[in-house]
Amino acid sequence: MAAIQALDVPAATPKGQRVPLDRRLLVGGVGLAIIVLAALAAPLIAPFNPIEQHLDARLQGPSGTYLLGTDNLGRDTLSRLLYGLRPSLISGLAAVALAAVSGTVVGMLAGYFGRWADAVLSRLLDLLIAWPTIFLALALVLVIGPGQFGVVLAIALAELPIFARVMRAITLSNVRGEHVEAARSMGASAPRIMVRHIFPFALSPLLVQFAIAAPLAVVAEASLGYLGLGTQPPAPSLGGILSDAELYLSQTYSAAVFPILTIALLVLSLTLIADGLQKMLDPRGAPVGL
Amino acid sequence: MSVQPASAQPLLEVRDLRVSFGEGESERVAVHGVSLTVREGETVALVGESGCGKSLTSLALLKLTPGGSSATADVLSLDGDDLTGLDEDQMSNIRGKRIAMVFQNPMSALNPVLTIGHQITEVLRRHMGLRGKAARARAVEMLELVEMPDPASRVNQYPHQMSGGMRQRAMIAVALSAGPDLLIADEPTTALDVTLQAQVMDLLQRLQKELGMAVLLISHDLGVVAEVADEVNVMYAGRIVERADARTLFREPAHPYTRALLQTVRDLESADTVDLAPIPGAPPALGQVIPGCSFAPRCPLVFDRCHVESPPLRTVGPNHEAACHIAEEVMSGKGSPDDRV
Amino acid sequence: MTESDRAVTDRPLLEVTDLAVSFKVARARGSWTRPVVRAVDGISLRIEAGETLGLVGESGSGKSTTGRAVLQLVPADSGSIQLEGTDLATAGANGRELLRKRVSMVFQDPFGSLNARMKVGDIVGEPLEIQRIGDRPSRRSRVTEILDLVGLPADAISRYPHEFSGGQRQRIGIARALAVEPALVVCDEPVAALDVSVQAQILRLLKDLQRETGVAYLFIAHDLNVVRHVSRRTAVMYLGKIVEEGPSSTLFGAPRHPYTQALTSAIPIPDPDAPRRRLVLTGEIPSPTNPPSGCRFRTRCPYAQERCAAEVPLLEPAGDGVSVACHFWKEIAASKETTEPAAR
Q: Which has the closest alpha carbon to B268: C56, C227, C234, C249?
């Protein structure tokens, strides 16, 4: 039988095959699990009290006693890092969760009601995007005073547009659909249509956005901590430890390098999770990266 | 213009065309050994419901089946030239020049960022070697030929500036500009309103006579087919289940599927007092494997043999073939709704 | 109940009077104002309990908008919609409640009209839930009952729409529409997306359900054969107006309006030997943003005269229960009678 050669195009991925667990998701998940466990177990595994000063052992490099060295006040860097992870993780997560919830609501309202509601909300989102996170945080600190609450609020406001835009697009593509019109024809209320007939279609894209926003939040939290806007001394935070160490870089590298490595590991894990999730939930899309 | 006398050699001949997706165990066969013959100047229809493989068959004739599929045929020849061994370059000299195609949706066939004139002159340059003013004048002529209103200015317009009916005409003009011997028309009027449908079918028939082309009409609409086809092939689940000249097929269907389809369409024409006797179930999905005759699960005349043995397409009368174990009985009216009542 | 019993009730199930609906469409380039499309321009309809009114027309005729206006999915500019004697516009919340309980809709797209993230049981039960009809177990048993009525397997209740074929999905949509036991179902192109053999199943189902439940249909479609088959009466729309209305047998058998004549003669007949007497229209339906003056059909009408441009023809009785909106329908009918015997 003569083959029609020109037709022998390489076969595409067969349909119906289950998408295997993405390797990036696995590696990122393990990385994040280790970090979260370490933060949770800090009271158990930290060798010292994170604010206890050992003035006889200032600015030391890694040693048997101080595994990752000490800072200018002789505080154990490992202990400070373990405890410092907690506010970073909590602020990051809280900020992203707040951004996700409020962004979803804003996006859904803008997309569903359209017209002036959409015009007003979309311009407000533009305003948030135009304003750098740092300035936003500085402004909030001026108003409500320094502390974690201001940082969380600032990061949440900065990341709100990410969620709002995705939700608005998905709402727009569904709101004119026949299944929504069918719900209207039954007399379904606007909240019911939004919750039952639009939101379920946004779940997986929102999850991907959540994974993208999380590492950004961690970086933002560390930057704000570095500027002294977040957790107030002497309590440790990743940004704060780095900021303390910076002045003494000429005397010891370890107090600065290890917080940087910790932040990098955390961001890398979260990014890998985001890429993996995106690949699994939307196999056609390109990896998101950072 | 007179239609040339039927020569011994058909214009298009396909023997045992197979199209499948996937390989090995996951292979799904969409077209199972279809054979077709189209003679010069003739209109041959390929009728069937969605997923029956009619569009894939027409794409395979041009070697345009989608990625991930593979197609084979024992014979694929155009006017005596073997097409099976041709590569992509050689095929692109056939497409548009000797075999052209029009589709259901003109927006998918026309390039949205080029004017209609540009799209016609491109074909003229590539296949006829016409350029410049001569090509442009010819493009306007083509638009006149398809009865485009105000062709001299429409030639400079983009597809989105035209109405649905005009786009359909523009697509036909592009397809016919190199003077093909065979036009494959895949549901050419399905997306159009009924009054436009009549305009476009009349146009296609007139052009076929004037240009002496053969037409392979792919359609689901038996009404349209009855109006224009010389020969009709009925497809079901990737196979041709019946083939006959149009008059025979509509008068004496030999396959229960053909007969049931015709009955449904005729019942619809009757008043609301007549009850429809629809074919139960749904056509199998593309590539779905059914043992024996693939129509057996929906057939009112099914018996044991149908579930084990796939009936071959066999001659049941002059210029009439059907793939049914009891085609003769079907032709004589056994098991028809009139018979049951 | 026999046909004559129904006819004597003075109050029709649905009475639409002088309905007009318009939309603003996107601004053209270089223009400051958004043009207004008068999609439906003063139409009146009447549907008796248990009957089917067919509404045919080509794309842009306003037939779908009419259906949506009846369900108040698009706001009407003017005119009244009376359901079982209640004017929906003036009755406020009570009118809305009456509408949702008595009128439902079947859509064209068997894929898009069902929420892919909901189970079939929840989809079919949703109107009951919204209307707060019955408690959870009684709703569940109503859903089971209605799924059986439309010919779906009992296990469909816990499956998702994507597991079903197009025809079965349309059955799910019909089940949802019938769940509240409505008096009227607006069917918008319910079979246009289906294969011929499946089309016939759905049409048969709709007719059987009408016989069993006494539901009335406003049946909107572009396919004349389908409309003729299911509706006792039919209205033909062109550019937002009804041009002819009457019993389907008369309307399709002896069309009076030139547009209806063109439509019916354009239907392809599945018989190679059938005589072709085609009145093929030239051109296409004009843009509804700028409809022709006078009779809207005049730009495509082979019989158009000066009067047609100046004066809008009104629907007038034309015998056999038919109404027609054409200045010259008598003359056209007379000329047909003289030419036709000669043609034969």
A: C227
